[in-house]
Amino acid sequence: MALLAVGLNHKTAPVQIRERVAFAPEQLPDTLRNLAAQANITEAAILSTCNRTEMLCCVDTADSEVIIEWLRQHREFSVNELNPYMYTHPEQSAVRHMLRVASGLDSLVLGEPQILGQLKDAYSTAKDAGTIGTQLSKLFEYTFSVAKQVRTDTAIGASPVSVAFSAVSLSKQIFSDLSEHTALLIGAGETIELAARHLKESGIKRLIIANRTLARAEALVKEVEGYAITLGDIPAHLAEADIVISSTASQLPILGKGAVERAIKIRKHQPILMVDIAVPRDIEEEVGELDDVYLYTVDDLQEIIDEGLRSRQQAALQAEEIIDTQVTHFMGWLRSLDAVSTIRTYRSKIDVIREAELEKAKRMLAQGNDPEKVLTQLARGLTNKIVHTPSVRMKQAGFDGRADLLDAARELLDLDTPDN
Predict the structure, then answer these.
(1) CA–CA distance, 74 with 23 (Å, rounded to integer)
(2) Residues 26 and 120 in one domain
(3) pLDDT tens digits, residue range 196-222?
(4) Closest residue by Cα to residue 140 from 148, 335, 321, 8
């Protein structure tokens, strides 16, 4: 039995290939059962995200071609179309790859936490589909444990490395408890969407989302539980906001000094954090001159991002050390499975001897023999039967000059080395 991780990701394949390979969640159960039904495959799980599609399988022989051929046919690729983008990680390499992926070390954004949740979904889907067994279950559970250790013991996820996350991190530094504050987000693009999600995860009390098109703002509001307004409504709501994050494609400023001054007066000079991510800028430069306004631009955030990336890179080195150790531990457990059938056979053999000797002792007791003598005979009989075959084999090993076998017997039976 061998482990194989086969797939492609953002490092090996362009988006045009990744989107053709990706599996929608509703497709996965039937797809998994189809994969697990292929010759040579005994267990299967699939991780499919926008940045990667990977098949993790237990196979009878470590040949990835069955899996790659299955994917080619399933997604209607020619050999030359798909093969150049695929990678294969066998056995120990597969375990290491799994741990690195779960810890965010193989992600587009170093240390991002979303991949761990996606792995948990992949595990749950495979369990429900009935395509996962002892080995993959153990690997997934071990992976989750190691990823938690990496998050706990290193700073891999502590520092911001994206503009949206940096803006929210800055908000948390200035307003330590976001559950008491309101944020106004201007725009409805990807950056604002990410900022909205980060704010929601951080416990923000209220979200107001302003966009030129109200329908787009309302669509985002449904996902993050906020309140949608148009750009023209901003002056009426600006005083409600403790945090303003803006990222539009406007060629002219959205917020001017006068509107912010009026909002500050209404707020009775309670401070406002304003983060202008847009290029060109959405917030007039003069707004930064106002008292009680803390204005940051995308250039200010870049310093936070660069520092965060340096911090994560250092943490990644520590994470790799943890993973090296944990790969060794898991491979030890995996190799121990090879001994299970031998142990089971040996125990069965001893059980047969025990039952035979026990029946003999019962007959002797039924005949009225002295119980103490019966127990002595039982112990002697068990000992003789158990040690007979190993003793014969060790004598033969000595006769044949098999010192290696005798050394193995001493280790296996936990015997002291005999005096010379």
Answers:
(1) 11
(2) yes
(3) 998 998 999 999 999 999 999 999 998
(4) 148
Q: Is 288 exposed, middle or buried (0-12, 13-18, 19+ CB in 10 A)?
A: middle
Domain identity same for 95 and 215: no
Number of domains forming the structure of the chain: 3
Cβ–Cβ < 8 Å for 146, 326: yes
C-alpha–C-alpha distance, residues 380 and 375, integer Å: 9
- Residues 178 and 271 reside in one and the same domain: yes
Averaged pLDDT of the chain: 91
pLDDT digits (tens, 9 = 90+) for 58-72: 999 888 999 999 999
Whether 322 is covered by a domain: the verdict is no
- Three-state SS string over 345-402 comes to HHHHHHHHHHHHHHHHHHHHHHCCCCHHHHHHHHHHHHHHHHHHHHHHHHHHHHHCCC
Q: Residues 245, 234: contact at Cβ < 8 Å?
A: no
E-only strand ranges, 205-321 = 206-211, 227-230, 243-246, 272-276, 293-297
Q: Say whether both 63 and 109 belong to one domain.
A: yes
Whether 57 sits among the annotated catalytic residues: the reply is: no
Please, which residues bridge with residue 4 across strands?
Answer: 57, 90
Cβ atoms of 148 and 198 closer than 8 Å: no
In a domain, 336, yes or no: no
DSSP 85: G
Burial of 312 (0-12, 13-18, 19+ CB in 10 A): buried
Same domain flag for 131 and 172:
no
> The domain containing residue 296 runs over which residues?
163-303
Same domain, yes or no, for 123 and 223? no
* Chain centroid, CA 274 distance in Å: 34
What's the average pLDDT block by block, 10 residues per block, for the chain (420 residues)?
93 90 92 95 94 94 91 92 95 96 90 89 97 96 96 85 84 90 93 90 94 92 91 96 94 94 95 92 94 91 82 93 96 85 87 92 93 93 92 91 90 73
pTM of the predicted model as reported, rounded to 2 decimal places? 0.65
Instruction: Please compute, for residue 357, the number of CA atoms within 13 A of its CA located in the half-sphere on the CB side.
Output: 19
User: Any idea what the CATH number is for the domain that residue 86 is in?
Assistant: 3.30.460.30
Q: State the DSSP code for 283.
A: B
38 with 121, same domain: the answer is: yes
Tell me which of 50, 79, 108, 339 is the catalytic residue: 50
Given the DSSP bridges, would you call strands 206-211 and 243-246 parallel, antiparallel or unpaired?
unpaired
